Amino acid sequence: MEVINALGRRKAAVARVYVKEGSGKIVINKKELAAYFPSSLLQFVVKQPLATLGVEEKYDIYVNLKGGGFKGQSEAARLGIARALVKINAEDKAALRAQGFMTRDPRTVERKKPGQPKARKRFQFSKR
Q: Which HAMAP family match (predicted)?
């Protein structure tokens, strides 16, 4: 099997995911999963699509992550892995979609507007 690649995004994070058959090793930015995401919760988020399909030990996954914070990065990796698994086997798409792993979360930070300190916050109003 050749290498399958997919892209996952969340907030400001972009994950390029490369999946090939192997022993279940996950490498993110040239580090092991546990070294890159010390939090077990974030490790769980990254592994969710694999656990749903029961293929944790079947594929080696290499992820190139850029931008965003650790939560956005973990969810971007999850989307990329789910998309790559669907490229490998299209019948898995229904199971992954039911869990919500195939949907790109469109919520991002709202831009700052001119004449305001933040996106929605206003400077104090003085009547006189």
A: Ribosomal_uS9_B (MF_00532_B)
By the 10 Å C-beta count (0-12 exposed, 13-18 middle, 19+ buried), 78 is classed as buried
**If pLDDT is split at 50, 70 and 90, which confidence band does 28 have?**
very high
Q: Which residues contact 94 (CB under 8 A, 6 or more apart)?
A: none
Question: 10 Å Cβ neighbour count for 37?
Answer: 22
CA nearest to 101, candidates 77, 85, 79, 73: 79
Residues 25 and 35: their CA atoms lie apart, in Å, by 13
Q: Kindly report the pTM of this predicted structure.
A: 0.90
Residue 25 belongs to a domain: yes
Residue 10 β-bridge partners = 13
The CA distance from 60 to 3, in Å, is 10
